[in-house]
Structure formats: C-alpha cells, structure tokens
Specification:
85 residues, globular, 6 helices, mainly alpha
C-alpha cells in the first residue's frame, strides 16, 4: 500500500473536519490557492513556512507532527483521527 502524501493527508483531515478549501484558508489566514497547491503536493506549496503548518494544524485540531508524518507523537495531548487512515 502506498504511503499517504502530505497533500493527501491534508485533504483527508480537512474533509474529516467538514471544511472546504476556502473555509480552511480563511481560518488559517492563508490563500486558498496555497491550500490547493499543498493538497496537490505542488513543490512550491510544500515549501511552506513552519507558521503555515502550525496554522493548518490548529484549524484541524491536530499536531504538526501528525500533519507532516501521519504519526502521532508519543506524548500527544490531542486526539488523533487515526481511525481515518
């Protein structure tokens, strides 16, 4: 089974939260076009700053580590949507 990419994980988590790209962009204070680039694993979109990853994770209610790797940190304080994997 192929490993989920960052963009695929972001789509899955955004949809799990019931958000459109536009809603996610507004909540994360980002452009919708950047969300789209990231979700399509566009190289330029993936070169986002740590601040953007933090905002996305906050909107989704997950850790940056889970967003980046799909793995929950050992001492996580937030619930993981692991059942969606």
């Amino acid at each position: 089974m192929p490993q989920e990419t960052f963009g695929q994980r972001l789509v899955r988590l955004r949809q799990w939260r019931g958000l459109t790209q536009r809603e996610m962009a507004q909540r994360a204070e980002m452009r919708q076009s950047l969300i789209s680039m990231i979700e399509h694993d566009d190289r330029d979109g993936l070169k986002m700053q740590l601040g953007a990853a933090l905002r996305l994770a906050r909107v989704l209610g997950i850790t940056v580590e889970y967003l980046a790797t799909g793995q929950q940190p050992a001492r996580a304080s937030r619930k993981s949507p692991a059942h969606l994997s």
